[in-house]
Amino acid sequence: MTAIDHDPAVPPASWTIRTFHPRRGRMSDRQTDALNRLWPAYGLDVPDGPVVPVDLADLFGRRAPVVLEIGSGMGDSTAAMAAADPDRDYLAVEVHTPGIANLLDLVDRHGLRNVRVGQGDALSLVSGLPEDSLDAVHVFFPDPWPKARHHKRRIIQPGHVALLRSRLRPGGTLHCATDWAEYAEAMRETLEADPGLVDAYGGFAPRPAHRPVTKFERRAITAGRPVVDLLYRRR
Ligand SMILES: C[S@@+](CC[C@H](N)C(=O)[O-])C[C@H]1O[C@@H](n2cnc3c(N)ncnc32)[C@H](O)[C@@H]1O
To answer: Where is substrate bound in this sequence (predicted)?
Structure first.
C-alpha cells in the first residue's frame, strides 16, 4: 500500500522544510582519516533535487534484510547494532560530516562489513529506495523541534510516515525513540493515525535491549526526562 500522492521522482516541496539544523563541527585527525579512506567504499552521496534510485543489493554487495537508521548522529548506535546483527545490513543517513566520519571510524575499528552511510537528507534517500525494501526503520532521538512554529520540521509527521511505511516490507518495523514528552505523544498520534501501521505493543513499547544507550539517552536520564520507545509494524 502506498499513500504517496506526489510524483515519486520529485520530493514534495514541503521537504524543503528541513528536519535538521545545519551545524558545523570539527573533526579529529582520526575521523578525517577514516572519512578520506572509507568514504569511497562505504559512503553514499544523497543529492538534493530529483530522486536518485538506490540499489541496495549493489550498495551492500549482497541481498540481506536492510535496517535504515535515520539521523545516525555520531554513529554509536548504528555501529553497535550492526556489530551485533551481522545477518542484516545497516544503512545510516546523516547530514553532519563529523558524525559520518565517526561512524566510518567505528566501522573500520570493528571491521564491520554490513554498514553503509549516506550523507544528505534522509527523506531524499528514502524516496530513492524501492517500495517494500526495508526490514526496519530506526528514528532514535530525532530533533524534537519543541517550538510550535517549528513542528512542521519534525521527521515524524503524516507525509513522512507514509513515505517510510511504503519502503518497509509488510511486517517490517518502524521504531522511534524520544525523550521529549510532547513529541512522544505527537508521534504516537501520528503513527496511530497511519492506516498502514499497527502498534506492536498497544501504547509505548518496553525499552528494547538491542537499542544502545547514546549520549542523548544519558543526558535525558540525568535530566530526569523519561525515554519512550514506539514500535509499529507495517500491515
Ligand atoms: C538528536 S540527534 C540523534 C542522533 C542519534 N540517533 C542518537 O540517538 O544518538 C538527531 C540527528 O538527526 C539528524 N537528522 C535530522 N534530520 C535528518 C534528515 N532529514 N536527514 C539526515 N539526518 C537528519 C541530525 O543531523 C542529528 O545528527
So the answer is: 147, 179, 214-217
